[in-house]
Amino acid sequence: PQVTISDGSSRVSATLSTGETVEVLLFGATVLSWKDAAGNEKLWLSKDTKLDGSKGVRGGIPLVFPLFGPATPNHEATSKLPQHGLARTARWEFLGKSTSEGSSSSSSVKLDFGLSSDSLAEHTKALWPYKFGLLYSVTLDRESLTTTLVITNDGEEPFDCQMLLHTYFNIKDISAVQIAGLEDSKYVDKVDGAKTKTESSSQVTFSGEMDRVYTPAKGPGHPIVISDTGRPCFRIVRDNLDQVVVWNPWIEKAQGMSDFAPKDGYKNMVCVEAGSVDGWQKLDKGDAFEGAQTIYIL
Ligand code: BG6
User: Fold this and answer.
1) Over the range 26-50, which residues count as b (16 or more CB within 10 Å of their CB) and which as e?
2) Closest residue by CA, ligand 1 atom 5
3) Average pLDDT over residues 220-226
4) Cα–Cα distance between 164 and 242 in angstroms, integer?
5) Could you tell me the pTM of the whole model?
6) What's the ipTM?
7) In angstroms, what is the span from residue 192 Cα to ligand 1's centroid?
8) For the segment 161-178, what is each residue's pLDDT rounded down to a tens digit?
9) Virtual torsion, Cα 40, 44, 46, 47, nearest 10 deg
């Protein structure tokens, strides 16, 4: 595998000898692109996204930490943070690569990125004054992409956190997308007054704005499968991440987002986001929390 650093050292990309590629932006350690050997893009990325850390990337895989959603007054410790926290806009450090050559069918590359509270700008530190370390690994295999986040509490004070891998999948037609693996699962319906409901269908389909936080009934080991125009195309396997957010902004919300382009791009994206966002992970001094997803191309 080949690893290249480009764009004034703000992007890291890796290519397997068989042609698969992944590209990561150091702002947010955001995966911007993931292509199969034939060059087909697996992730959706807005044409008008910011890529300079002034805002989270609109597309790819932004990392949500330590807060999911907007700040709420009933959780004082995160009440100063912007929506989805501070990790998605901070500049991360590229820590290096590990490669495994093997036969062409088993070659893979792992890219490691780090962010620590010590390297944050002072105004960002002030928003959430805890000492933490984040290690994010992006592993490209021929048939899959694995993203793993390890959070450590490096300070004296305990802290509460949430994390989410906000993956934007590139799909052909949102009206023909089906998501399997969520049957019988409780979810919070954010487009219907945050009511708690239970999924009765074996396939979730889209005919309008959707913003749901599922806690899949079968647990993290049970895969979520995304099908597009009748064909299964992605299988997501989670590790230690109990929630799955399903989001599509549809027409009006897409219109309202200045960084969302083209405006009918909502037809070609669906966010299926593995995370730990129901309540808080409490980390005491020295504790770590690790969460991961592997996305298989079907
Ligand atoms: C999803 C949330 O994870 O992210 C939605 O459930 C939110 O409520 C969406 O609108 C996009 O968030 P942002 O901050 O990137 O515009």
Assistant:
1) bbbbbbbbbbeeeeeebbbbbeebe
2) 211
3) 93
4) 10
5) 0.97
6) 0.98
7) 15
8) 999 999 999 999 999 999
9) 0
